[in-house]
Design goal:
Elements (H helix, E strand, L loop, with lengths): L26 E2 L4 E2 L6 E4 L9 E5 L4 E4 L5 E4 L6 E10 L10 E2 L6 E9 L5 H5 L5 E11 L7 H4 L11 E4 L16 E6 L10 E13 H10 L29 E2 L17 H14 L9
Parallel strand pairs: 1-8, 2-14, 10-13
Antiparallel strand pairs: 3-6, 4-5, 4-11, 5-7, 6-7, 7-9, 9-10, 12-13, 12-14
């Protein structure tokens, strides 16, 4: 797969962002309208550990967790029942943020997508031919100074899938354990596309307002210890900046759920910059003479 998003259109015609097409990701700003009918989604099976092993994979573009059956998403204005099939991540580099969607033009350090397929479709090919064939739940990921113990279910396994093509079986765990459980009624909704080839315009996007928090060291496991090349490649290449560029919204309506806080005329602090926080921490520790700290 070509990693440069600007070149995808050379091999995938549907990735050309032509006028008035509804591509993703987009920038989220305060120019959105509240939709009182958008309440919490029903995340069935997210609060328990499913049976059967899951598979964690490095596909050369991201780290993907294939979750098998047992979980589904419905409600919250979605046009049907959707079965959960996988989740994956987008990130930047040690010096830059890497979420796909932006908030007021700023990126979060990472973004996680939980991909769900409409239950009426027998396979992904059929779902991609339906403008609402997929429902993707997007979660921004921000950084704090303590590990997210539950997120460790994934981050601690990354060394086993460091190189493209590597897979590992995983014991299932409740996905709800590292989601912002108390804020799942706060989200934004729009219709868009896959953010990787074939860029099909078949996605109902739900982007949650409150991020997942992980530690600096957990972020570094993605930005520095995962590679887009095979282990035996002559030159290994770090997997970094695996996000697609932002696209115009054109005539699309961006809706805020009834409990969302960021609306037209409202204010919200912009996402924090990983690089800015890192430099601030260095200066702070230097001020107090703490030269031996491991920053990430």
């Amino acid at each position: 797969m070509v990693l440069d998003p600007y070149a995808w259109g050379d091999n995938f015609e549907s990735c050309h962002p032509l006028l008035e097409q509804h591509h993703s990701p987009i920038n989220l700003d305060h120019q959105m309208s509240r939709n009182q009918s958008l309440g919490s989604l029903h995340l069935k099976g997210f609060d328990v550990a499913q049976t059967g092993p899951w598979t964690l994979e490095n596909d050369g573009h991201s780290v993907v967790l294939h979750v098998g059956g047992g979980m589904s998403v419905s409600g919250g204005g979605l046009p049907g029942l959707y079965h959960t099939v996988q989740l994956h991540f987008h990130w930047g580099s040690p010096a830059s943020n890497g979420s796909e969607h932006t908030v007021d033009g700023r990126r979060y350090p990472m973004e996680m997508h939980i991909v769900n397929m409409k239950s009426i479709h027998p396979n992904l090919t059929a779902a991609l031919a339906d403008p609402t064939g997929l429902a993707v739940l997007g979660f921004f990921i921000d950084v704090v100074y303590a590990d997210n113990v539950h997120f460790g279910h994934i981050s601690q396994k990354l060394s086993s899938v460091a190189y493209k093509g590597q897979t590992i079986k995983m014991k299932p765990f409740p996905l709800m354990s590292f989601l912002p459980t108390h804020n799942l009624s706060q989200y934004y909704r729009y219709y868009g596309s896959l953010t990787t080839p074939p860029c099909s315009q078949a996605v109902v996007w739900t982007l949650y307002e409150v991020p997942i928090y992980i530690s600096w060291s957990q972020l570094a496991q993605f930005t520095s210890q995962v590679f887009s090349t095979e282990e035996d490649a002559e030159q290994v290449t770090p997997l970094q900046n695996n996000f697609r560029h932002v696209h115009p919204t054109f005539s699309r309506i961006i809706a805020a759920s009834k409990d969302a806080r960021v609306l037209s005329g409202g204010g919200s602090p912009p996402p924090r910059s990983t690089k800015t926080l890192f430099l601030f921490l260095i200066l702070l520790l230097g001020t107090f003479g703490c030269d031996n700290y491991n920053y990430i």
